[in-house]
Design brief:
Radius of gyration: 22 Å
Distance between the termini: 26 Å
Largest sheet: 8 strands, antiparallel
Mean pLDDT: 93
Number of strands: 14
Strand content: 25-35%
Helix content: 10-25%
Number of helices: 8
Shape: flat
Oligomer: single chain
């Protein structure tokens, strides 16, 4: 593995077409919006999709969705306890600073998402808790323009249970609501910190795997809320600086991405938008189309 010797920034432009990219459970699972009506996809949801893609690529992932798990463990704790050396350290009654560093190293070496995004290991029954700070940081995705959210009432053609009062009538559980974003262009940004990468062992090869996962972010992600083809990665921008500190700040690099609506053709499409990147002296950008 090659140690990461330079700072990396990235940006992703994606489209949502008649789908719910990230429902808010505190708002009836409606697509997330900020106070100005712009659509949002939380950084947690983006990391979930990245974990899924990396898991599909054969990487060991600690935080797995239950419906996608590829082992017999039903929880994060069970997965941690399956690594005997790590379990012994976390349950040690008198742990030293060296024990904490060893536990952190074992966790980072075992799971990709721990050395990339970090993780807090604090479970019931453990004597020691450790926090791993990951080098990969990801922003919330925000739409370029305010999004229009449509809602429709849906019904099931068959009752889940028989209506006890009147068997000829449908039960209340046959009714529901489904929400979607009609169309939106979203952008999110991220960075990889080399100093933190040194501590977790996140390598240059790991960074390349992350780049490939960004290109295919929505592969194998279809659901009733997000039908196949309704979510698409359009562009991935990738900057590799020439030093650990970086030639420019991440904020300045991210501001070079411009997504502007230039046409109002119907139906709405990414073709109505112009995506450009301003050049920064001494910093080249790699541009990829989604796959």
């Amino acid at each position: 593995m090659t140690a990461l010797q330079k700072k990396i920034d990235f940006a992703v432009v994606l489209t949502v077409d008649k789908a719910n990219p990230n429902g808010d459970p505190l708002n009836g699972n409606r697509p997330r919006q900020d106070f100005s009506g712009h659509g949002e996809i939380s950084h947690v949801a983006i990391k979930r999709k990245l974990r899924n893609r990396l898991q599909d690529a054969g990487e060991a992932i600690l935080v797995q969705s239950d419906e996608r798990r590829n082992d017999e463990h039903r929880s994060i704790k069970d997965r941690v306890d399956s690594v005997e050396e790590l379990k012994k350290l976390l349950t040690k009654s008198k742990a030293t600073g060296a024990d904490e560093q060893t536990a952190e190293m074992i966790a980072c070496n075992t799971w990709y998402d721990v050395r990339a995004f970090g993780q807090v290991f604090a479970f019931k029954g453990t004597k020691m808790s450790i926090g791993v700070r990951g080098p990969v940081s990801i922003h919330t995705a925000t739409s370029i323009e305010p999004v229009n959210v449509s809602s429709m009432q849906i019904t099931k053609s068959v009752n889940s249970t028989t209506n006890e009062k009147d068997p000829s009538q449908k039960t209340s559980d046959t009714m529901g609501m489904k929400h979607r974003v009609d169309f939106g262009v979203y952008v999110f940004y991220g960075s990889i910190n080399p100093q933190l990468a040194e501590r977790t062992g996140f390598s240059y090869e790991d960074a390349q795997k992350l780049k490939e996962a960004l290109k295919t972010l929505f592969a194998n992600d279809a659901s009733s809320a997000r039908p196949d083809g309704s979510m698409e990665v359009n562009k991935v921008f990738w900057w590799e600086h020439d030093s650990k500190l970086g030639r420019y700040s991440s904020a300045k690099v991210h501001r070079t991405v411009k997504v502007e609506k230039v046409k109002d053709n119907l139906p709405p499409s990414i073709d109505n938008y112009e995506i450009t990147v301003e050049e920064l002296d001494g910093l080249a950008v790699e541009e990829y189309d989604g796959l």
